[in-house]
Write a structure and sequence with these properties.
The protein is α+β, with helices and mostly antiparallel strands and 433 residues long. The chain has helices at residues 70-78, 86-92, 116-128, 134-152, 155-167, 181-184, 189-199, 215-226, 281-296, 301-308, 338-355, 359-375, 380-392, 400-406, 409-419, and strands at 7-11, 16-22, 28-33, 40-46, 54-56, 63-65, 80-81, 84-85, 96-101, 106-112, 205-211, 252-257, 263-269, 317-322, 327-334, 425-432.
């Protein structure tokens, strides 16, 4: 810990240090200095994502529901104001800017090599000065309609959300982040201002910066450019998530698209959506990555057999996604024989549940995860996209090496049986016309 309310946390094993401070507005700022780097990255994250479509306003016990896609719509509108596109102004300062909406957050970011303070001021300017009128909202509805149609033609996007709609009965993760034609048509300027006032308070936001940055100077600068214009933080906003049954909604879902080969996605729903391993979502995530690699990794016999039998291609992979209120495992790839691949994958899981993850697999994949993590720390983009997301989830992204050391093979085998329960799976297929 250092003076002036600044916290300093060192990670000797990976030679990284994080400086953090909560300024007077309630905004929490995190800085990872990278001496000698030309590039500087900043990302302003808001705890408002696509799953936050039900919440209570401050001082009220009445639940407020909003249409699907409002968080994404708001992100779009904040990149436009009465002066036009903010992206053009970032470009005039030599920066590349972007924004995205995920299930649990909205993020606004930029990268630059010069004029960092000017770009940072522009970033806060665009987020702190909302401008919504009926004409701009109507225009945005048409733009997002086009985006929805574009994603509707994307087989990888459709197979994911088809799978989530099959896994989940009522959890909002089953809904497309962009919303639907019907839901976005209900959005009004008043609704956008209401959600902005509720979620875009500094207590529900964080700023993360990495590059050759002086943390003390940064904290003072952000305090200066925000202190007089931002209302007192209301704090972290918790959405209302409906109670989700343990069972899956549908066992199988198919859609016909213009694709050359069938697209395959098999998903497994966590039994306790927000359950953690020893109190750590991060520990649960890393243990599941070891489990999935031990079954479906490219160096395992199953992968070799499926590949040489032409049941899978180079895109065959597995992944695990977990947030505070949901979690699922997913096996995806392109295949000419989806039904045969489906049976082989289920059989492989059943066999592995009887045998368990071996000691050799456990040690090998734990080392692989550590090596992959350390090798990517030189990438400012890798740190920028991950650190804030893990913070909002309540996890310390840079503690991955220590957390990996704490995982035991018994943890992996317990999750192997629980998270890959064969009674809680759904199959999503995109089939050729």
């Amino acid at each position: 810990m250092v003076s002036s309310g600044i916290m300093k946390k060192s990670y000797p094993r990976i030679d990284e240090t994080v400086y953090s401070k909560e300024i007077s507005t309630g905004l929490r700022i995190y800085v990872i200095p990278k001496a000698g780097y030309q590039k500087k990255n900043a990302i302003l994250s808001v705890g408002f994502g696509s799953i936050n479509n039900c919440f209570k306003l401050a001082g009220s016990n009445i639940a407020q529901s909003i249409p699907e896609g409002v968080a994404h719509f708001l992100e779009h509108r904040l990149f436009e104001d009465e002066n036009g596109s903010v992206l053009d102004r970032f470009a005039s300062f030599g920066a590349q800017a972007n924004a995205f909406t995920s299930f649990s957050q909205t993020a606004y970011l930029f990268s630059c090599t010069t004029l960092f303070n000017e770009n940072l001021e522009l970033l806060f300017d665009l987020v702190q000065k909302p401008y919504f009128d009926q004409m701009s909202v109507d225009k945005e509805i048409e733009i997002i309609r086009q985006e929805i149609m574009l994603y509707d033609d994307n087989a990888h996007w459709r197979i994911l959300f088809n799978l989530l709609s099959a896994l989940y009965h009522v959890h909002p993760v089953r809904n497309d982040i962009s919303g639907s034609f019907e839901s976005i048509a209900q959005i009004t300027p008043e609704m956008l201002y209401c959600c902005y006032d509720h979620f875009y308070n500094h207590g529900n936001m964080s700023l993360f910066v990495t590059g050759d940055i002086d943390p003390h100077a940064l904290f003072n600068h952000v305090e200066k450019i925000t202190g007089s214009t931002v209302k007192k933080a209301a704090g972290r906003v918790k959405g209302i998530i409906p109670e989700e049954p343990e069972s899956v909604h549908k066992k199988r879902i198919e859609e016909i698209k213009v694709v050359s080969q069938p697209q395959f996605a098999l998903g497994f729903k966590d039994r306790i959506a927000k359950g953690t391993l020893n109190g750590s979502t991060l520990q649960r995530e890393l243990a599941m990555e070891i489990v999935l690699e031990a079954i479906f990794g490219s160096s395992e016999k199953l992968y070799y057999d499926l590949y040489h039998e032409d049941l899978i291609g180079d895109d065959f992979r597995s992944e695990y996604n977990v947030e505070e209120s949901f979690g699922y495992s997913m096996i995806t790839g392109e295949t000419g024989f989806p039904d045969e691949l489906y049976l082989r994958v289920l059989e492989a899981i059943e066999v592995k549940q009887k045998e368990g993850v071996t000691e050799e697999q456990f040690n090998r994949y734990r080392k692989n995860l550590l090596g992959s993590f350390i090798s990517q720390l030189n990438s400012l983009d890798f740190i920028m996209y991950n650190y804030p997301a893990y913070c909002f989830r309540g996890d310390d992204f840079l503690s991955i090496p220590e957390v990996l050391q704490e995982i035991k093979i018994e943890d992996c085998n317990a999750l192997l049986r629980d998270n890959l329960d064969l009674s809680r799976h759904s199959l999503s297929l995109i089939l050729p016309e």
